[in-house]
Specification:
disordered N terminus; 5 helices; 8-stranded mixed β-sheet; Aminopeptidase; binds coenzyme A
């Protein structure tokens, strides 16, 4: 499973929206409570959930989880906005020596470069290194997003307790 999506935080108010000077018009901004309906829909999509190997939550559990992670000062969250709409989110969480990274794009927006660009923008704002990511081995798009942003594979694929084979990645600089 993708452990990077089990926690999160808040895009700091000091980190203003970052516009991308391209036709894609992606920006990252702080997660607003009003974004949660869209984020819930995106993370409830069964195709997305299967690709990420992250089980969907019921709405009440989702809301409780996001209330917790949005109030956690040790984590960082950002909403991805494309063409004025909530297109996904990025997250970084965990201990300082081993921070995890994650991201999720609305399936309707896949294949437009949003995942790659959103992670690039997110990393620009994160001083933390090293960063880790754990990706299901059946998720080549996510592995490509990581590799395009400088992450490298660590070791061989590992079968986790839930039976999902995962690949570990690291960004050291
Ligand atoms: C993984 C995910 C973030 C990719 O988002 P995206 O916006 O479609 O990504 P991009 O458009 O930036 O494309 C990423 C790269 O993957 C490549 N790719 C896509 N599908 C692929 C496949 N089946 N095999 C190999 N490469 C693939 C694309 O060609 C692109 O590479 P390129 O720029 O060299 O051509 C998106 O599918 C998603 O949110 N999935 C559900 C949640 C998830 O898996 N999160 C990550 C958990 S670790």
């Amino acid at each position: 499973m993708c452990t990077t999506l089990c926690g999160a935080g808040v895009w700091r108010a000091a980190q203003d929206a970052v516009s991308v000077p391209s036709a894609r018009m992606i920006e990252l901004r702080a997660v607003d409570i009003a974004d949660l309906d869209a984020l819930y829909a995106q993370m409830s999509d069964p195709v997305s959930s299967a690709l990420a190997a992250v089980p969907s939550r019921e709405r009440s559990a989702f809301d409780a989880h996001w209330a917790k992670i949005m109030s956690n000062p040790g984590t960082t969250l950002a909403t991805i906005v494309a063409d004025g709409k909530v297109a996904g989110h990025c997250v970084c969480f965990g201990e300082a020596s081993a921070r995890d990274i994650g991201y999720w794009i609305d399936r309707a927006c896949w294949g437009r470069g949003y995942g790659s660009e959103a992670l690039r923008l997110f990393l620009e704002q994160l001083p933390d290194r090293p960063l880790k990511a754990t990706v299901a081995a059946h998720n080549p798009a996510s592995m490509r997003v990581l590799e395009k942003n400088g992450f490298t594979r660590v070791g061989e694929p590992v079968v986790e307790d839930d039976g999902v084979t995962v690949v570990h990645f690291e960004l050291v600089a």
